Amino acid sequence: MPARATPQYTGPAQAVAAQGAGSRRPALPLATGRPGSFEAAVHLGFAVLLVASVVRYVMRHSPADNLLVLGLAIAACLLYAVAALLSVRDRRGTPWMVALVAIWAVLVVAAPSFAWCSFALFFLCRSALRGAASYVLAGAITVATAAGLFRLGSGTDLAMLLGPLAVGVMLTLIYDRIQHDAEEQRRLHADLVRAQEELATSERRAGTIAERERVSREIHDTVTQGLASSLLLLEAAGRGWPGEPARLGLLQATSLLRANLAETRGLVHELASPGLESVPLPEALLATARQYVPGATLLVTGEPLAVSPEVRHALLRVAQSAASNILLHAAAPATTVTLGFVPDAVTLDIYDDGAGFDPAAAAPPSHAGGYGLRAMRQRVEQLGGTFSVQSAPGEGTIVAAQFPLDVGP
């Protein structure tokens, strides 16, 4: 039906449901309890043409002849209204359409003035029915119209006979093409809906994975690093107790545990960096590094520029993780944190002159550890930055990160 050739979807979910419902006719647009604009135009055209045909017939024939024709016209009008209503409500109306076409055939043969209404009847038949029944009844309408017009021409005008038949064939072909295109469009729309749902599912899954990795990095850079460093200090204090170095180590471990507790609370509360949000970035970096390496020094190069909260948070976490690794593994006499500003980027280098290691031989992540370098790299690269580690056994280590300054949330 042409009215259903123009998509009027009420929503993706309804379109998919209509496709799988196995309805007897195309589901474009979906049944909404009222006709579409094309259907309304067809029904209005039928009413106008019917009234015009009635007036024409009454004016040209005697009252005795009018009674039968008017009775047939009224019956056809009522049956048309019932069939149109059933079509709008998507209910089966084959018996009503058969009765309508039968009465209409008699009417149009008896009074060819009503032949113009055949167009509306043809479209109603094709829209209300599907399959062989729609072709049979549409053919009956065409043949009856041709017979009525041929009779009007006194049986001598072949154009009156062949014209309606040719128009009926053309309308059938055009309607079938429109219907095919509408069904193809509905199928493509359903495929698009499924693809969008699959994409949404993939995005949710990817978002869940990314969030798990983010939380794992936060836990590693706060709870895990702090507890590991505190444990190392406590073990060293236990071996040297009750000497003064052991007491200093115990105080440092206590201070680190307190800071780690604050970090854990911050992790629970929006994964923030407690106490460091309002502190200038250079001071915050130095304070973060000195939680693990009390003798760390800071060097700032370039003209300080504003950085986004995301980059600031990443800089602090990288410094925290690198300083924790220095405490746990490097045994470095000196540690230098360098914060650099260039026109389009901010850089962070953490250098220690400790034991060093071979980055290529670093142990893979496991329950025993090994997540630090990977977590730092992921954190930096997710913000569009670059991360590198330069080290060798006995030659110290440089952990370097660079972030673009235009990184947004």
Give a description of the structure:
The chain is α+β, with helices and mostly antiparallel strands and 409 residues long. It has helices at residues 12-20, 37-60, 63-88, 94-110, 118-128, 132-152, 158-240, 244-268, 281-290, 309-330, 372-382; strands at residues 297-301, 335-342, 345-352, 386-391, 397-404. The chain has two domains: 2-199, no CATH class; 279-409, Histidine kinase-like ATPase, C-terminal domain (Heat Shock Protein 90). It is built from eleven helices and five strands. Strand 1 (297-301), helix 10 (309-330) and strand 2 (335-342) form a beta-alpha-beta unit.
Q: What ranges have pLDDT less than 50 throughout 5 or more consecutive residues?
A: 1-34, 269-274
- Rg on CA atoms, Å: 42 Å
How far apart lie the N and C ends?
51 Å
Strand order of the largest sheet: 1-2-3-5-4
Write the layout of secondary structure elements.
Layout lengths: L11 H9 L16 H24 L2 H26 L5 H17 L7 H11 L3 H21 L5 H83 L3 H25 L12 H10 L6 E5 L7 H22 L4 E8 L2 E8 L19 H11 L3 E6 L5 E8 L5
Parallel strand pairs: 1-2
Antiparallel strand pairs: 2-3, 3-5, 4-5
